[in-house]
TrEMBL record:
Keywords: NAD, Oxidoreductase
Entry keyword annotation includes Ribonucleoprotein: no
Source organism: Xylaria bambusicola
Protein name (record): Aldehyde dehydrogenase domain-containing protein
Residues at the catalytic site: 63
UniProt cross-references to Pfam families, sorted A to Z: Aldedh
InterPro entries reported for this sequence: Ald_DH/histidinol_DH, Ald_DH_C, Ald_DH_CS_GLU, Ald_DH_N, Aldehyde_DH_dom
Domain spans labelled Aldehyde dehydrogenase: 3-290
Residue ranges the record marks as coiled coil: none
Keyword match Oxidoreductase: yes
GO molecular function, one term: oxidoreductase activity, acting on the aldehyde or oxo group of donors, NAD or NADP as acceptor
Family indicated by similarity: Belongs to the aldehyde dehydrogenase family.
SUPFAM superfamilies membership: ALDH-like (SSF53720)
């Protein structure tokens, strides 16, 4: 950034221990010389930062969690949708805020999609890249991440969901390596449908009508990213307009984000504001009015 022209005094890195992070965060957010906050992270921490900023009426951009739905319509290109869902679900072991976590399948193509999807990810290998260069996805960030994913999976199975792929087990020195998991027959009442997993799992749910698909997609407190697959672009666009998400991609993965594209949620646990592109620049600007009046004006008072 400095090579690109950013003044050196505008860029600072503050390495700090986990124990001191809460205090430093509050100090930085409330400091009078800091006029704007841009945070990317969990909705839990985002709410803390928003609270600190509110005490001094400071603007924020909060790019938080996601539970991206992908709607696969009855006329979708099966191969394209399977490829996009596989990538969107398991790239970086699902540790992307825009990762595909919910796949909504039209009932007429559900079984065909499942068969093709399971075949596509059959050879997706989890492991340590340093030990095996053929590994497709690496481990989760922490052992706590593994436990969170395992709990969601176990609770879903206990509630009636069906595990099509994966055995809930973890491996590696820190037990952070998990294979891809596919959970079928997931309903909105299950925690796995509502809560961000941030791990290598994806839920499958069927629908009958476009209206039901939209309702299922919007049945979440998250609003970051989504996708719709259909050969009928106008139909897909009409659905995309009604899905509550900061971005909704037609025939693209939910993690699609070209350089210069604005990104952010539209409320709820995904936060608000935009970063990236011109919209991101405008977040860090203020509109200021300067007027110039003529001489000799007589005012009516």
């Amino acid at each position: 950034m400095i090579e690109a022209g950013l003044p050196k005094e505008c860029l600072h890195f503050l390495p700090v221990s986990a124990e001191r992070t809460p205090a430093l965060t509050e100090f930085a957010v409330k400091h009078p010389l800091i006029r704007h906050v841009n945070f990317t992270g969990s909705d839990r921490v985002g709410k803390i930062i928003a609270g600190h900023a509110a005490t001094c009426l400071k603007r924020c951009v909060l790019e938080l969690g996601g539970k991206a739905p992908v709607i696969v319509l009855d006329d979708a290109n099966l191969e394209d949708s399977v490829e996009a869902v596989a990538f969107g679900s398991f790239a970086n072991a699902g540790q992307i805020c825009m990762s595909t976590e919910r796949v909504l399948l039209h009932e007429s193509i559900a079984e065909s999609f499942k068969k093709a999807f399971l075949a596509r990810i059959e050879n997706v290998k989890a492991g340590n890249h340093e030990e095996d260069p053929n590994v497709s996805i690496s481990g989760l960030f922490t052992p706590a991440s593994t436990k969170r994913v395992q709990k969601l999976l176990n609770d879903a199975v206990s509630a009636g969901a069906k595990l099509l792929c994966g055995d809930v087990a973890a491996s590696g020195p820190k037990l952070t390596i998990m294979a891809p998991h596919v959970v079928d027959d997931v309903t909105p009442s299950m925690e796995i449908f509502q809560r961000e997993s941030f791990g290598p799992l994806v839920c499958l749910t069927t629908f009958k009508t476009d209206e039901e698909a939209i309702e299922l997609a919007n049945n979440s407190d998250y609003s970051l990213s989504a996708a719709v697959f259909s050969k009928d672009v106008m139909r897909a666009l009409e659905i995309a307009r009604q899905v509550r998400a900061g971005s909704c991609h037609v025939n693209n993965p939910s993690v699609y984000l070209p350089a210069g594209t604005p990104n952010g949620g539209i409320g709820g646990s995904s936060g608000y504001g935009r970063f990236g592109g011109m919209a991101g620049v405008l977040e860090f600007t203020e509109i200021k009015i300067i007027s110039m009046g003529p001489s000799g004006v007589k005012y009516p008072i």
